[in-house]
Automatic annotation (TrEMBL):
Keyword Signal appears in the UniProt entry: yes
Keywords, alphabetical: Oxidoreductase, Signal
Name of the molecule in the record: Isoamyl alcohol oxidase
Residues in FAD-binding PCMH-type domain copies: 115-297
Family in the record: Belongs to the oxygen-dependent FAD-linked oxidoreductase family.
Transmembrane spans: none
Entry annotated with the keyword Signal: yes
GO MF term set: FAD binding; oxidoreductase activity
Pfam families to which the protein is assigned, alphabetical: BBE, FAD_binding_4
Residues spanning the signal sequence: 1-23
InterPro entries assigned to the protein according to its UniProt record, in alphabetical order: BBE (IPR012951), FAD-bd_PCMH (IPR016166), FAD-bd_PCMH-like_sf (IPR036318), FAD-bd_PCMH_sub2 (IPR016169), FAD-linked_Oxidoreductases_BP (IPR050432), Oxid_FAD_bind_N (IPR006094)
Length: 583
């Protein structure tokens, strides 16, 4: 019903604009071509590209267009509104912008019918990629025609990296190949799985389970494994046991900015391997596949705990929260990972994941907290369950979590190191109260990836990960169709109040780039730490013509999107020296 239409029938739409002189060079700016510029590809150019990639060029359609004139359709609009918060609706679109803050209400199903449906930040065309040839052709076309190029799988992205106005998108969603292999190298010998660029988390889990193994992946069923998730580091409920998703990477298959197909391992194109393994997506090349280590399947125990603020005794609530954080080192030392959501009146541990541990082990780990709740309150509910394997556990306790849904939210985050839990627990408690009193939701992921048993060699994940006890995700939410001014106010609260409450506590750590504030000051240091300078050198080596751009990605600090949506790059700037100041 909502699939993208084949391009040929719609090509002429982009040429209704009056032709004008290209403005690629303005002062010290080099700007990408957009419709209306003489340098924008002609109809024949697009036809020839479509022929080169065997008819795989598509023009995206706006999912919510059916909720606005002149395309209004009541029944279809009701369907879109009903399932708008379901990731699957957006996953199968070549262009839908899942993050409301990025979409900017340009075509929202909950705004009034009479409001025009605008393209907004969505891409202009997409290449429905099936292989390296399709990808290389798209890169070559974008480079030669000097147009913006973006990379998209599912659109699970809150920084706007998988979309862009006037852009050509390489859409990898249908590259679903999965292969179980025995991998042999000087760095790793053992079971592995090769995942195509379009494989999503649940698909990977099911495939690994079929062979009696576990692959480290995320919580959300529909997130793409191979793109921004793993390339950004990728936390998992299995991370205290096996490390981050990026720590599992054995081999990458990637097309770089010059169109070359490369294999990247710790010994072949090792710099590209290092960069892709945690240095952020969308900027070094387009990944076709990754080979990941597998681990033997095992039973998993889960615990779900909830307690609420008693307004008559608020100190009991805050004391119980502190007691939980006191237990975090013990939880993670046992290979566990906890997801604890906090507001100013609710604590929800949903869930605590304990791989290869029993119900008895779970009760023993939580005993100090349970004892305090029994004697001091507040009232609580606790459920502990055993599961025979990882997939069964994940499908029953993690997959049903409401965080799987698309949400209208401004996100932020910061990492809390183990030293804070050990030496400054009172300051952490105060910071949490400041955050939740400001209206931000605090979600603390308790994990320890310092051992990183899955890691073959050093990689480019933010170094602060190795010292982290809590990776904190913050959010402020607004209702569907809310006033954009209110969204801006909430964004201000995130950037000026909620994130700083944690960054003051641990100024030398940083934030997980995939779940961070898009307005994060000093993002180079916050997201990449001391790795930024080296990553920038690798970016320049493999993408010398600046084909790839993504907001807040390595190399993006010399680029910006102007008011028309055109991507421009600053010339004659000493980017190296300014970037390395983050080291």
């Amino acid at each position: 019903m909502f699939s993208s239409a084949i391009l040929i029938g719609a090509l002429t739409l982009c040429f209704t604009l009056v032709q004008q002189s290209a403005a690629q060079l303005v002062g010290n700016l080099a700007c990408k071509c957009i419709p209306g510029d003489e340098c924008w590809p002609t109809v024949q150019d697009w036809v020839e590209l479509n022929a080169t990639i065997r008819g795989r060029l598509v023009t995206p359609s706006q999912l919510a267009a059916v909720c606005h004139n002149p395309n209004y359709d009541e029944a279809t609009c009701n369907y879109v509104q009903k399932y708008w918060n379901q990731p699957e609706l957006h996953d199968d679109s070549s262009s839908s912008v899942m993050a409301a803050a990025v979409a900017n209400l340009s075509c929202d199903p909950f705004t009034v019918r009479e409001l025009p449906c605008e393209p907004g930040n969505t891409v202009t065309y997409s290449v429905n990629a099936s292989d390296a040839s399709d990808i290389a052709s798209a890169i070559s076309f974008a480079r030669e025609k000097d147009i913006r190029l973006v990379i998209r799988n599912t659109g699970h992205d809150y920084l706007g990296r998988s979309t862009g106005k006037w852009a050509l998108s390489v859409w990898t969603h249908h590259m679903k190949s999965i292969e179980y292999i025995w991998y042999s190298s000087k760095f790793y010998n053992g079971p592995a799985i090769r995942l195509g660029a379009g494989v999503q988390v649940e698909e990977a889990y099911v495939a690994a389970r079929a062979h009696g193994f576990i692959v480290v992946g995320g919580d959300c069923a529909t997130v793409g494994v191979v793109g921004g998730y793993i390339q950004g580091g990728g936390h998992s409920a299995l991370s205290s046991k096996y490390g981050l998703a990026a720590d599992q990477a054995v081999e990458w298959e990637v097309v770089d900015g010059t169109g070359r197909l490369l294999k990247a391992t710790p010994s072949q194109n090792a710099d590209m391997y290092w960069a892709l393994s945690g240095g952020g997506g969308g900027t070094y090349g387009i990944v076709l596949s990754v080979v990941l280590k597998l681990h033997p399947d095992m039973p998993v125990t889960g615990a779900q705990l909830r307690f609420n603020l008693d307004r008559g005794r608020p100190e009991a609530f805050h004391s119980a929260v502190s007691k939980y954080h006191e237990l975090v080192p013990k939880i993670t030392a046992a290979g566990g990972m906890g997801i604890a959501e906090l507001t100013n009146d609710t604590f929800l541990l949903t869930p605590l994941t304990l791989p290869n541990l029993s119900r008895t082990d779970a009760w023993e780990i939580l005993a100090p907290l349970v004892e305090q709740l029994e004697h001091q309150g507040p009232a609580y509910s606790l459920n502990v369950s055993e599961h025979p394997n990882w997939l069964d556990y994940w499908q029953k306790l993690i997959k049903p979590n409401p965080t799987q849904l698309v949400q209208n939210a401004q996100y932020g985050g910061w990492m809390v190191p183990r030293s804070v839990l050990e030496h400054n627990p009172e300051e952490l408690t105060s910071a949490i109260q400041e955050i939740t009193d400001a209206g931000c939701v605090f979600v603390g992921l308790a994990l320890n990836v310092s051992r990183a048993e899955g890691r073959l060699t050093e990689n480019s994940v933010l170094p602060a990960w190795r010292e982290t006890a809590l990776n904190v995700i913050l959010s402020t939410q607004w209702p569907e169709g809310a006033d954009p001014q209110r969204a801006q106010e909430l964004a201000h609260i995130m950037t000026q109040i909620c994130v700083p409450a944690l960054s003051r506590l641990a100024p030398q750590t940083g934030a997980y780039m995939s779940e961070a504030d898009p307005n994060q000051p000093g993002w180079q240091k916050a997201f990449y730490g001391t790795n930024y300078g080296r990553l920038l050198d690798i970016k320049r080596k493999y993408d010398p013509d600046h084909v790839f751009y993504a907001p807040l990605a390595v190399g993006s600090d010399t680029q910006f999107v102007d008011d028309s949506g055109r991507l421009c790059r600053q010339l004659h700037r000493n980017a190296t020296s300014s970037s390395r100041s983050c080291d």
